[in-house]
Design goal:
The complex is a heterotrimer of chains A (246), B (250) and C (336). By secondary structure, chain A is of the alpha/beta class. Helix content of chain A is 36%, strand content 24%. Chain A contains 10 helices and 10 strands. Chain B has helices at 15-18, 21-37, 43-59, 64-70, 75-87, 102-128, 131-140, 145-174, 185-212, 229-249, and strands spanning 92-95, 98-101. In chain B, a hairpin with a 2-residue loop joins β1 and β2 (98-101). Chain B is flat. Chain B starts with 14 loop residues before the first helix and ends with a helix. The chains are: A alpha/beta (246), B mainly alpha (250), C mainly alpha (336). Chains in contact: A-B, A-C, B-C.
């Protein structure tokens, strides 16, 4: 089966000259849930922005379900890669929730009954069906985060890429989101600082450090390696012990 | 200028609220034109216009106190209008011991009457119509769709940007900054620079979010805003009645 | 400040409405060419920014404070076409959503605060700015500084043509001009520092500074250097069509519109003629000079006088700009 995501020797520098990625290699198979860990400034968000062509690689390639990311394939890639930003306000730019969730499929030409069905479906998946006619800024942060996920799920993507999904969520919202992610049938790449969250949801983790992949393996093993964590400015939360495998 | 900018919309389900936005928009615009075209000598005409607006306010269940509070925005021009008879030219007359210009008094009345009626009509429109519907109504009246989209994004992110600006101000003041005179301006301007970068970058991210969901340059139309003849008739009754008053006043 | 309904007569309201509509239409096409499908979200966010910074008030003297207009700032940051769209959107929203500014006065407000400020601000900026950061900041200051009193004087011009209040035009001009030069100083200062701040962090975001970015060299994990071709940004479009168009519009305004008003004597004169004190009017210091009295003396028709007036304004602003640019260029040759 074709890998959902393949990144090959990706290198990139910002407009002001600072280099962020020095040759990143990774592959994610269909159906996997993978966490992307690393200290601040490692280049995680920068890497993620290459996955749907927001940033054009200075050097190297990115392939989504076999299709290379490039100027001519952007439209297709963007339907296949569902990117959920850290700030839901960036993604909820329409006057109502319905308008926001409908935006994607409407652009693909879907109208009427079919559109309504898809919108309700996506909102059901994230448990936000009752908010359908409300303006986004009347909702809580956690609710907006879930709607943002819905706006992307409605496109039926190949891979769901989440940037810090649990940040700024209260414990209940955090749990609700985890349940939603677990229930989805889609490949997931999750950029996160939240090590317990990564352990809970992702069997495999990558550590990005200084613009290269420093480690790639089962989450459980990575998190048990204290030296590895320390070298990459990662730490398990106070009092957290890795639970025994069930 | 910044003080009066609070949302004017008051949710409700009166007949006025339920009218399609393009009807109300056209009605208010034509009404304003009729008012401005009325000769200033016809006091009675302006009285009738005010009654018409009062009827609309009544139908929409908008309290007079609400309208009066929002009319604060007019204050700078009221002050200016009051000054006109004092500094105006031409024949002068005595009023309560003050020498005032006759032409100036007429001009002040003219401006005050027309400006006030215009403001009230605007307030009633904004109070009974959701902002995004006003925009959609404008689009149906052939305002270029790009302009409408720009306005839509502006409205969506206005609160976000203003909130960011407020946070910067709080941060400045928490560190003891007080804007005393023009020398403190550069500090404020540096915040403005940071705010611009944030706003611009957010604009880029919004655009990318749009592209990520298949945006190709035109917004998909998913709302049906057709207006029936009866709805048009109801909305346009305001300017049509005003027009008859105008006709009688010429 | 936003002009309310009833302040200007029908001729001025309608003609400025036409000017505003035409200006916005032209800028819609121009902005689309530059921003393509990014036009709506980018201009929308920048419009929100402009709306927000217009709330900034700065102390002018003692108790008075002035507000930022933002036209010149917008033009320098995002280019004149997008700037006009942003300013027009802000004014439309203020008019329809906040009852700030008369609906029949939208033409006047958009023309004065949206088009004139952008036109003058950008024009003066372009005259002065050279390729160094310092000259860009100086040019930003001067562009914004000039834009405010010119906008105020344009208001005065419109007021003379069709204002409904019988106030002596000289009084209006002095009151408007004086205060607005001070406000212009504040606007210039804020604009210059804002542009400078943005230049320091994201020079690629300053439209007026295009051409300042350097080439990028990447290093991969093995230390091999790879040079990256610069992104093809939108081509730097010549501002000449914009400036020519803008000057053209101003001349049309001055020339043709003034003919609407010139046929009947203005409020003062008509009252004066009626009451018989017209001959008592004392001569203005510049009285016998060809242009004073807006065209009666010296045989120059009002319309031509208006055109000449605009021309002189542009010449003066242009000369100041040219001189400043020359000195800025010398500075960059010598120093940083």
């Amino acid at each position: 089966m074709v890998n959902s995501l393949e990144v090959d020797r990706l290198a990139y520098a910002y407009p002001d000259g600072t280099q962020a990625l020095y040759g990143v290699d990774l592959a994610i198979a269909k159906g996997e849930r993978v966490a992307l860990l690393g200290p601040n400034g490692a280049g995680k968000t920068t890497l993620v922005m290459h996955l749907n062509g927001i940033l054009a690689a200075g050097h190297g390639t990115v392939r989504v379900a076999g299709t290379p990311v490039g100027k001519s394939t952007l439209k297709e890639i963007r339907q296949r890669v569902g990117l959920v930003f850290q700030d839901p306000d960036d993604q909820l730019f329409m006057p109502t929730v319905r308008d926001d969730v409908a935006f994607g499929p409407a652009n693909m030409g879907i109208r009427g009954e079919e559109l309504e069905r898809r919108v309700r479906n996506a909102l059901d998946l994230v448990g936000m069906a009752e908010a359908i006619d409300r303006p986004p800024h009347h909702l809580s942060f956690g609710q907006r985060r879930r709607i943002a996920v819905a706006t992307v799920l409605v496109m039926e993507p190949e891979i769901l890429v989440l940037d810090e999904p649990s940040s700024n969520l209260d414990p209940a919202a955090r749990r609700e989101l985890a349940e939603i992610i677990r229930s989805l049938d889609v490949t997931v790449l999750m950029v996160t600082h939240d090590l317990p969250y990564a352990l809970e949801l992702c069997e495999r983790s990558l550590i990005l450090s200084d613009g290269v992949i420093a480690a790639d393996g089962p989450t459980r093993e990575l998190l048990a390696d204290e030296t590895l964590l320390r070298n990459n400015r990662l730490e398990l939360p106070y009092g957290f012990a890795i639970p025994a495998p069930n | 200028m910044g003080a009066g900018h609070h949302q004017l919309y008051r949710p409700g389900d009166s007949a006025v609220h339920l009218l399609p936005p393009q009807c109300k928009l056209l009605a208010v615009l034509t009404f304003a034109i009729v008012v401005v075209a009325t000769p200033k000598e016809a006091f009675w005409a302006f009285g009738l216009y005010a009654l018409l607006l009062a009827a609309v306010a009544g139908a929409a269940a908008i309290k007079p106190a609400f309208v009066l509070r929002r009319m604060v925005i007019e204050v700078p021009f009221v002050l200016f209008a009051v000054a006109i008879p004092i500094i105006g030219m031409g024949e002068r007359t005595e009023v309560l011991g003050l020498s005032l210009s006759v032409a100036g008094l007429w001009a002040a009345w003219n401006i005050l009457a027309k400006a006030t009626l215009g403001v009230i009509a605007s307030i009633l429109l904004a109070a009974t119509t959701e902002p995004r519907l006003i925009l959609l109504g404008a689009e149906r009246l052939r305002l270029p769709s790009t302009l409408v989209q720009i306005a839509m994004f502006m409205l969506r992110y206005l609160d976000v940007i203003v909130e960011e600006m407020r946070r910067m101000r709080v941060a400045r003041e928490s560190r003891g900054f007080v804007a005393r005179d023009i020398r403190q301006v550069p500090v404020i301007a540096r915040s403005a620079g940071a705010l611009f970068i944030r706003s611009y970058e957010r604009g880029e991210r919004v655009h990318l979010a749009m592209l990520s969901r298949g945006y190709t340059g035109s917004m998909p139309v998913t709302r049906d805003l057709r207006a029936s003849g009866a709805q048009w008739a109801l909305a346009l009754s305001l300017p049509v009645l005003a027009l008859t008053v105008l006709g009688a006043s010429w | 400040m936003h002009v309310p309904d009833g302040f200007f007569d029908v001729a001025v309201s309608v003609s400025t409405g036409a000017v505003a509509a035409a200006g916005v239409a032209v800028c819609l096409r121009g902005a689309k060419r530059e921003l393509d499908d990014r036009t709506a979200p980018m201009a929308g966010l920048v419009a929100a920014f402009i709306f927000a910074v217009q709330m900034l008030n700065f102390p002018v003297t003692g108790g008075t404070s002035g507000h930022l207009l933002g036209g010149a700032l917008a033009a320098i940051l995002v280019g004149p076409y997008t700037a006009v769209l942003c300013m027009a959107t802000v004014l439309l929203v203020q008019g329809f959503f906040f009852a700030d500014g008369g609906l029949t006065a939208l033409g006047v407000n958009i023309t004065l605060m949206g088009i004139v400020t952008v036109l003058v601000g950008w024009g003066v900026f372009r005259l002065i700015a050279a390729r160094s950061r310092r000259s860009i900041v100086i040019a930003a200051f001067l562009g914004a500084l000039v834009s405010v009193p010119v906008s105020a004087l344009s208001f005065t011009l419109l007021f003379w043509i069709g204002g409904t209040a019988p106030i002596e035009i000289g009084t209006v001009a002095m009151a408007m001009g004086g205060v607005h030069v001070l406000i212009g100083l504040g606007e210039g200062l804020i604009t210059a520092v804002t542009v400078s701040t943005v230049l320091a962090t994201r020079p690629d975001l300053v439209y007026g500074a295009r051409g300042l970015t350097r080439r990028l060299v990447l290093r991969d994990a093995d230390g091999v250097a790879i040079e990256v071709a610069p992104e093809e940004s939108a081509p730097v479009r010549s501002s000449r069509p914009f400036l020519v168009g803008g000057v053209g519009v101003t001349l049309i305004l001055a020339g043709i519109v003034s003919f609407f008003a010139s046929s009947s004597p203005d409020g003062l004169e008509s009252v004066g003629a009626e009451k018989g004190f017209l001959d008592q009017a004392t001569a203005h210091p510049l009285g016998s000079w060809a242009l004073s009295d807006y065209g009666a003396v010296g045989g120059i028709p009002v319309g031509i006088a208006g055109v000449i007036g605009v021309g002189i304004t542009l010449l003066v602003a242009g000369s100041i700009g040219y001189a400043a640019r020359r000195s800025a260029a010398v500075k960059t040759e010598v120093g940083a």
